[in-house]
């Protein structure tokens, strides 16, 4: 049986490995923030996708959350029970339900967003020059190089 020699890691491999570690740490921070606001992570994710005064079809929310429409129904049921969203029928097709943030939902969404917008300690602790360098490199990566 032939063994496969480990592949030499490129700088891109190493950068991605480090970034994955940071993202996993941030995932834990997201879970903690959701818990702090007494939200299931899926509920927090749903609130973060919504904008005040903007009605969103439930199937669109399912697409944004990468889940089945049936999962969104239960999720919206729980958010609605807490007074965070309301359902509205769609005038052109009454079978389609749109979800709208209530004022309480918009307030909670803003508080969750504010918590998650705080840079992680690992980035805050970098020298300002390194923070700028990281920002610029990540911006170039996001914009396609």
Write the layout of secondary structure elements.
Layout lengths: L10 H26 L4 H9 L6 E2 H8 L3 H13 L3 E6 L2 E9 L1 H15 L3 H4 L3 H15 L3
Antiparallel strand pairs: 1-3, 2-3
How does this model look, in words?
This protein is mainly alpha-helical and 145 residues long. 62% of the residues lie in helices and 12% in strands. It contains 7 helices and 3 strands. It has a 3-stranded antiparallel sheet. A hairpin with a 2-residue loop joins strand 2 and strand 3. The longest helix has 26 residues. It is extended and about 55 Å long. The termini are far apart. 14% of the residues are buried. The mean pLDDT is 90.
Counting DSSP E segments of at least 2 residues, the number of strands comes to 3
Question: Measured on Cα atoms, how large is the radius of gyration?
Answer: 20 Å
What form results from the Cα inertia axes? extended
Count of discrete alpha- or pi-helical segments spanning 4 or more residues: 7
Please mark out the parts with pLDDT under 50 across 5 or more consecutive residues, or reply none. none
Oligomeric status: single chain
Estimated structural class: mainly alpha
As a percent range, the share of helical residues equals 55-70%
Output mean pLDDT: 90
* Termini Cα gap: 41 Å
How do the SSEs run, as a string of H and E?
Answer: HHEHHEEHHH
Order the strands across the largest sheet as they lie in space: 1-3-2
Major sheet: 3 strands, antiparallel
Strand coverage percent? 5-15%
Task: Please give a quick description of this structure.
This protein is mainly alpha-helical and 145 residues long.
């Amino acid at each position: 049986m032939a063994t496969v020699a480990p592949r030499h890691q490129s700088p891109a491999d190493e950068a991605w490995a480090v970034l994955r570690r940071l993202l996993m740490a941030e995932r834990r921070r997201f879970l903690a923030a959701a818990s702090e606001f007494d939200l299931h992570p899926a509920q927090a994710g749903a609130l973060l996708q919504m904008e005040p005064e903007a009605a969103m079809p439930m199937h669109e929310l399912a697409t944004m959350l990468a889940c089945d429409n049936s999962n969104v129904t239960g999720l919206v049921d729980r958010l609605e029970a807490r007074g965070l969203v309301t359902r509205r029928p769609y005038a052109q097709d009454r079978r389609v339900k749109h979800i709208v943030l209530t004022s309480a939902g918009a307030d909670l969404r803003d508080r969750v967003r504010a918590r998650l917008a705080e840079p992680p300690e690992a980035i805050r602790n970098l020298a300002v020059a390194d923070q700028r360098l990281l920002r610029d490199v990540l911006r170039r990566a996001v914009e396609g190089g």
